[in-house]
Amino acid sequence: MSDKQQMLEVYLHEYEKLKEEQTQRIGFRDNMLYVTLGVFGGILSFALSGKTNYYALLVIPWVCLILGWTYLVNDEKISAIGRYIRYTLVNKIKELTGNADIESIFGWEIAHRSDTRRLRRKIEQLVIDEITFVLSGIVALLAFWFLAEQPPLAVNILCVVELVLLIILAVEIIIYADLGVGR
User: pLDDT for 10-52, tens place per residue?
Assistant: First the structure.
């Protein structure tokens, strides 16, 4: 086997491993939405079961922050793997094989990003992510402020901290949204 063939085998093996990691991360990321909704349901059922339980609403912003950040990090890694394949790995294979047609090497990695509805879908996903991980936390804070009677100053400060962190998460979700089309 020639050096070129060996390197091509290495690149193809790298591609397989990257796709495996990407697939695992996609499954994990997508399950984060279900976990988040389940946790919200559990907390809400407890918090709304009696006036003395309203403080449980303050757990929801932390759930939003922790699970939202975990969702975001995995989503970014999924996109990073795709970028690496589309730009770095494709170019390595192009150089090795002399194939000038980049789109013929791992064509799906480019094709699925080029359909006419991609931008609309990505914007819709961005809105869903913001609702799930940011708006729900803000609604929980508002519900607490309206339902709890005279919370102590320390609790109000905690609420402000949670609100600021949720806004930071909202900005990060927008920054990391992969709205690009094509390669």
Answer: 999 999 999 999 999 999 999 999 999 999 999 999 999 998 8
Give the span between the Cα atoms of 54 and 168, in whole angstroms. 25
Stated pTM of the model: 0.88
| Rounded-to-integer distance, Cα 110 and Cα 101, Å | 12
Q: Report the length, in residues, of the chain.
A: 183
Residue 35 tokens read as: 């976990």
Residue 11 class from Cβ within 10 Å (0-12 exposed, 13-18 middle, 19+ buried)?
middle
Q: Read off φ and ψ for residue 105, nearest 5 degrees.
A: -95, 115
Specify whether the CB–CB gap between 109 and 60 falls below 8 A: no
Residues contacting residue 25 through CB under 8 Å, at least 6 positions apart = 74, 77, 78, 81
First to last CA, the chain: 32
Neighbours of 123 (CB within 10 A): 12
Helices 153-176 and 136-147: crossing angle, nearest 10°? 160
C-alpha to C-alpha distance for 183 and 176, rounded to whole angstroms: 17
Nearest CA to 36 among 13, 65, 14? 65
Pick the closest to residue 29 from 63, 84, 60, 70 (CA basis). 70
